[in-house]
Design a protein that fits this description.
The complex is a heterodimer of chains A (259) and B (637).
Chain A (H helix, E strand, L loop, with lengths): L1 E10 L21 E3 L1 H17 L2 E7 L3 H11 L3 E6 L8 H14 L4 E5 L10 H9 L3 E11 L2 E7 L5 E6 L3 E5 L11 H7 L5 E4 L30 H14 L4 H6 L1
Parallel strand pairs in A: 1-3, 1-5, 3-4, 4-10, 5-9, 6-9
Antiparallel strand pairs in A: 1-2, 6-7, 7-8
Helix pairs in contact in A: 2-5, 3-4
Chain B lengths: L1 H4 L1 H9 L9 H13 L8 H29 L13 H27 L9 H27 L8 H13 L3 H22 L7 H10 L29 H9 L5 H5 L1 H4 L6 H14 L13 H6 L5 H5 L6 H14 L5 H13 L22 E2 L7 E4 L2 H5 L1 H16 L4 E3 L9 H5 L3 H16 L5 E4 L2 H8 L11 E3 H10 L12 E4 L13 H9 L3 E2 L30 H10 L6 E4 L2 H14 L6 E4 H4 L19
Parallel strand pairs in B: 1-3, 2-3, 2-4, 4-5, 6-7, 6-8, 8-9
Classes of the chains: A alpha/beta (259), B mainly alpha (637).
The structure holds iron/sulfur cluster (2 copies).
One iron/sulfur cluster binds next to helix 11 and helix 13 of chain B.
């Protein structure tokens, strides 16, 4: 099995987001970037498949900090790592990523592509279906268990309310991973240091060939409305304020009793 | 036979990796002399110390009797009489035989009547067999002498034996035969004793001195580096431990002193430092048939329970090193990725962002925003004091208030200081002790590089953990900084008359010695001086200074869950403070402590009785902080 994993770097949500000057994007210059969590699970699933029955895993990363994440992927067991060259300061659309991944998959004769089910820059989870469509391969998203089964796969997809569906798929295929069969493992610093010597391949982005169907006009930070109140971050005062507010609104035990 | 019984151990030690423990012989001998000659650590427990000293001295005196017993029959004509064997040596033997019995009596009283909890898990039969053998040896010795006196020998130098001779005479036993029986009883018991020793904890009679001699003389705060010749960072078989670590296992006396002070053990976690040692010792004896070390003989839960407080090592009378073993085995777990989810989160955050909280580096210096004056960026201008702030003091909103207090105090005292802003990373102290050596190296190197870019005279830390790493662990990379804790700097400023305090008529307070400030780095007095200088009366808890009881946060414990904890160490400690009576404040000198103990007080519901304050919060400078830090009067080189 030849597995290709997509690793997308996304802005760290713990950081402070600021708008770009044109108001049509976020200012990416001062942001920290981190690996999309779902992609981390996709990588783990790929490594688990490799450990269970043998496979070659190629990790392709895109965005700022890609090299660091690729070293981590190598330390976890990826056989080949490739960084996609992109302009750092722009968000890359899932269509473009999909076209590039499809091309890389052909190039590497991959027969299974794993990526995270969604990311903060792909909230609709379009990447996996796009790649599937471009390659004309079957696709399942929202997986939480993937097991190699003869020449194919048994893929479990999570649906709401505790319902899960298991598909039997033949390869090639594209999967949007929600959670890996096991939580992503920890890689120790010494393994990371060893992996820092892994050569990182380069590849250029492929144009998607699609017309742009829509454009962002304006982004806005959430406005501070009159309905909320910032109580600060000092636990003692916050607690006091909270109790007072509840009492004033008759929501404490005493208050309720009075009502 | 004794040699046969010791063969496993001898071959294990002979094949073990090397350890550099042969330097500084005079200092090593001196340590042996105080530890054994003065029973320094033993006497911390008065009854046990005294009874052990009695048995110990008696043992040496009675050894002369052993020499006589064997010498007289092996070499015809051998006798100690010419050097006083029948005069002063005789009276010494006579007296110390009785003292030995007194010592054993006290030991029996301690073990079977007082029954201290520290013996829980120690081998009871081992102790009992030894008591019986000693009593047998001493009794046969006395009765043999008595029988000799009965047979006409001079009893004037053996008063006790003479009394016994009288008793024997009245009982009408035959002198010659009794003497012969007692002699063989004596010799037989001694031989049994010798044969028994190699398989028992009484090996310590021979191994305590060498184990103390070969003790670690490096600074307490330096965790042992991974030896270059080791393939993986960790240890997962006993044979990978160097010979000193293995000798440790054989030297344990099962006294349980380590267990009695262990916060993890007290918290109900599956870790007893004593059993950690004895379990590995038994596995060493079992040889290849023993189960795997990590996860087998020593469970993962045991390894993760340790707070690295170092109380066990401080207490151990034979200088056994528990922590290097725990850290080495943790290194193995980390290398295999076997870490709890909490720890994994923290370590991943540290890898990614350089702090355990998962906050961006750019927010590290945010606490300076609410300060009335700007803080210098030590990367761009020279400073006298480079302040290494630390994660909790920088990011935790509960601690930032204290961080600002410290800044104000420094400013009031006219100290020229600066910080590293977003170039600071977690010091790696607890990362290293959690077994993550690779990440520790990355963090340390990054800090050393950042510090190397600055011009300064000294480094000050808020956090005792950072203090320890910068001062001791960074030596590993050849970085020798002068590092001091903020309490030391503030005490120095007060003494030099640079910091003038408004002394209040404060109430009674108690003070908690943080492990990494006190036990690890000897910072006991500066915090106490500050408390007094601020006008408060200090009332120490029973467990203070070297014997301080850990808050439970160290060594990466703060990143792990509380599963299996029956009583949190921090709550145990707050109870101790409450038992002092009328204490107003529980004073701390470590950012983590403010967090840990405030939570403990809330959990115990005693917020009305006790409040946690950092030392910095007690100190009120007389001059209000100026808008700009004063830079005069400080030489910058
Ligand atoms: S270092 Fe502290 S927690 Fe760890 S075993 Fe020793 S006494 Fe227990
Ligand atoms: S390790 Fe030291 S303190 Fe602990 S039981 Fe053994 S000898 Fe006593």
């Amino acid at each position: 099995m030849n597995i290709l994993v997509v690793l997308r770097m996304i802005p760290d949500s713990a950081g402070e987001l600021q708008l770009a000057e044109d108001g049509r994007g976020i200012d990416r210059e001062w942001l920290d970037f981190q690996l999309n969590d779902f992609d981390d699970h996709a990588l783990e699933e790929a490594i688990l498949l490799k450990e269970a029955g043998g496979a070659t895993v190629t990790a392709v990363a895109i965005g700022e900090g890609a090299n660091r994440v690729l070293q981590m992927a190598a330390a976890r067991g990826a056989d080949e790592v490739i960084a996609l060259q992109a302009e750092d300061d722009a968000m890359i659309s899932s269509r473009t990523i999909a076209a590039t991944i499809a091309a890389t998959a052909r190039d590497k004769s991959a027969d299974l592509i794993l990526c995270g089910v969604q990311s903060t820059e792909d909230v609709f989870g379009q990447l996996a279906p796009y790649v599937g469509a471009m390659l004309d391969w079957p696709h399942v998203s929202g997986t939480n268990r993937v097991v190699a089964d003869g020449a194919g796969l048994r893929v479990t997809q999570e649906r709401g309310a505790g319902v899960a569906v298991t598909y039997e798929m033949t390869l090639p295929a594209v999967l949007g991973v929600q959670t890996a069969s096991k939580a992503p493992r920890y890689v120790s610093g010494s393994k990371l240091r060893e992996a820092s010597k892994t050569p990182i391949g380069r590849a250029a982005l492929e144009p998607s060939g699609f017309e742009r169907s829509a454009e962002i006009r304006e982004l806005r930070l959430p406005a501070q409305g009159g309905s909320g109140e910032d109580l600060g971050n000092d636990a003692e005062n916050v607690a006091d304020r909270l109790v007072t507010i509840l009492a004033v609104n008759g929501l404490t035990a005493n208050g309720l009793a009075r009502k | 036979m004794t040699g046969w019984r010791a063969r496993h151990y001898v071959s294990a030690l002979a094949n073990a990796p090397k350890a550099a423990r042969f330097d500084r012989p005079m200092r090593r001998l001196e340590g042996v002399a105080t530890a054994i000659g003065l029973h320094r650590k033993m006497l911390r427990k008065p009854l046990a110390g005294v009874l052990h000293a009695i048995i110990f001295i008696s043992f040496f005196v009675l050894f002369t009797a052993t020499i006589e017993a064997f010498g007289s029959r092996l070499f015809p004509g051998f006798s100690l009489t010419p050097v006083g064997g029948e005069t002063w040596i005789a009276i010494l033997q006579d007296t110390f035989a009785v003292l030995m019995l007194v010592g054993v009596g006290l030991a029996l009283y301690q073990r079977y009547v007082l029954r201290p909890a520290r013996f829980k898990g120690s081998s009871g039969s081992d102790a009992a067999i030894i008591y019986v053998l000693i009593v047998l040896i001493v009794a046969s010795l006395l009765f043999e002498a008595a029988a000799r006196i009965l047979g006409g020998a001079d009893g004037s130098w053996r008063p006790v034996a003479s009394v016994l001779a009288g008793l024997l005479g009245r009982a009408g036993v035959p002198a010659q035969e009794t003497q012969e029986i007692c002699y063989w009883l004596h010799v037989g018991a001694i031989l049994a004793f010798l044969v028994y020793i190699p398989g028992s904890k009484h090996r310590h009679m021979f191994l305590a001195a060498p184990n103390i001699y070969f003790r670690n003389l490096e600074p307490r705060g330096t965790a042992p580096a991974v030896p270059r010749e080791r393939e993986n960072p960790g240890v997962d078989t006993l044979a990978q431990f160097d010979w000193k670590q293995q000798l440790d296992l054989l030297s344990c006396t099962e006294c349980g002193r380590c267990q009695a002070v262990c916060p993890a053990y007290a918290a109900g976690l599956p870790l007893s430092p004593k059993m950690l040692i004895t379990d590995m010792r038994d596995a060493l004896a079992a040889g290849p048939s023993a189960p795997p070390l990590v996860g087998g003989i020593i469970s993962e839960a045991t390894l993760w329970a340790c707070t690295t407080c170092r109380a066990c090592m401080e207490e151990c009378p034979v200088e056994i090193e528990h922590l290097p073993k725990i850290i080495d085995m943790r290194r193995h777990l980390v290398d295999e990725g076997r870490v709890s989810p909490g720890l994994q989160d923290a370590l991943s955050n540290l890898t990614r962002l350089g702090n355990s909280m998962g906050k961006p580096s750019k927010m590290r210096a945010r606490w300076t925003g609410e300060l009335g004056f700007p803080v210098k960026d030590a990367r761009s201008e020279p400073v006298d004091v480079l302040w290494f702030v630390g994660d909790y003091a920088s990011y935790d909103p509960r601690v930032q208030e204290i961080t600002r207090k410290v800044a104000e105090l420094l400013s009031a005292a006219g100290v020229d200081f600066g910080i590293l802003f977003d170039a600071e990373r977690n010091s790696g102290n607890d990362v290293r002790r959690a077994g993550e050596e690779g990440l520790f190296e990355t963090l340390a190197q990054s800090n050393i590089d950042a510090i190397g870019e600055c011009t300064f005279n000294r480094i000050m830390t808020t956090d005792p953990h950072s203090l320890n790493a910068l001062k001791n662990d960074y030596r590993h990379f050849g970085a020798a900084f002068e590092v001091l804790h903020y309490t030391a700097l503030l005490a120095e400023l007060i003494k030099a008359g640079k910091l003038d305090l408004v002394a209040v008529d404060g109430g009674k307070v108690t003070y908690h010695d943080p492990c990494y400030l006190g036990r690890y780095n000897g910072g006991f007095d500066a915090p106490r001086d500050l408390i007094r200088a601020a006008g408060y009366t200090l009332h120490d808890m029973p467990r203070c200074r070297e014997n301080s009881f850990c808050c439970g946060a160290g060594g990466g414990r703060i990143w792990q869950g509380d599963d299996g904890v029956t009583e949190r160490p921090s709550e145990n400690r707050i109870r101790e403070a409450l038992s002092l009576g009328d204490i107003d404040y529980f004073v701390v000198a470590c950012p983590k402590d403010k967090v840990m103990y405030t939570a403990a007080i809330d959990a115990l519901g005693v917020a009305d009785k006790l409040k946690v304050l950092d030392i910095a919060e007690l100190l009120v400078p007389r001059t209000p902080p100026p808008r700009e830090p004063v830079t005069s009067g400080v030489d910058i080189i």
